[in-house]
Amino acid sequence: MLKVRKVREDELLKVAGLWKEFMKYNTDFNASFAVNKKASEIFSREMLEKLKESDSRLSVAESEGELIGFCYSYISQKPKYFKLHKFGFIGDLYVTPEYRRNGIGKALVEDAIDFFKKNKIKQIELLVARRNENTIKFWESLGFSHLLTWMYKRS
User: Fold this and answer.
1) What's the pTM?
2) For the residues of the chain, what is the DSSP string, one character each?
3) C-alpha 40: how far from its chain's center?
4) pLDDT-based confidence at 154, cuts 50/70/90?
5) Is residue 61 within 8 Å of 2, Cβ to Cβ?
6) What contacts 48, CB < 8 A, 6 or more positions away?
C-alpha cells in the first residue's frame, strides 16, 4: 500500500541515495547534473536544516516499508517589484524506475500542492531538463505549462 508522508529525520540518508539516483538519471540529459562524491552527505545535512523551516517540505512515498520516491518543495520569493511575490517551487521529484507510471509521482505532487495551498501560495514553478520529454509530458498532464526556457553556456 502506498503512503505519502513527511520524511523522518532518520530517513534522510536513504532519501539522499534516491536523490543521487535522480541526479544520475538527469546526467543522461546533461552533464551539468553530475554530483561530487560527498553529494549524499551534503544533501542530507541541507535537508536536515530545511526540515526545521516551515517554508519547505520533503515528502516521501513509501510502499511496504520501502522508500520509493520523494518530493522536495519550498516557498520562494520573487523581487518585490513583481505583483506575484511568493511562489511555490518543486525542486526535486523522483520515483524509482520500477514504481513509475503507477500514480506515485502524482501523489507526491498532490502532497506538495496541498502544502502550498495551506500556505496560500497561488503559483507553483519547477524546472525540467529540456531533453527529458517523458517528464515534461508528466508535468503537462498535471496542468503545468511552459513559462521560461532556462539557458546556459559553458566556457
Assistant:
1) 0.93
2) -EEEEEPPGGGHHHHHHHHHHHHHHHHTT-GGG---TTHHHHHHHHHHHHHT-TTEEEEEEEETTEEEEEEEEEEEE--TTSS--EEEEEEEEEE-GGGTTSSHHHHHHHHHHHHHHHTT---EEE---TT-HHHHHHHHHTT------------
3) 15
4) confident
5) yes
6) 9, 12
Dist. CA 43–CA 65, nearest whole Å: 22
Instruction: Specify the amino acid at residue 29.
Output: F
HSE, CB side, 13 Å, CA atoms: give it for residue 139: 19
pLDDT number for residue 101? 94
Which residues lie closer than 8 Å to 47 by C-beta, 6 or more apart?
7, 12, 15, 16, 58, 72
Cα–Cα distance between 67 and 6 in angstroms, integer?
A: 12
Domain boundaries, the chain: 2-127
Q: Across-strand partners of 66?
A: 63
pLDDT of residue 126: 97
d(CA 1, CA 97): 17
Q: Which CATH code for domain 2-127?
A: 3.40.630.30
> Which residue, 125, 124, 3, is CA-closest to 65?
3
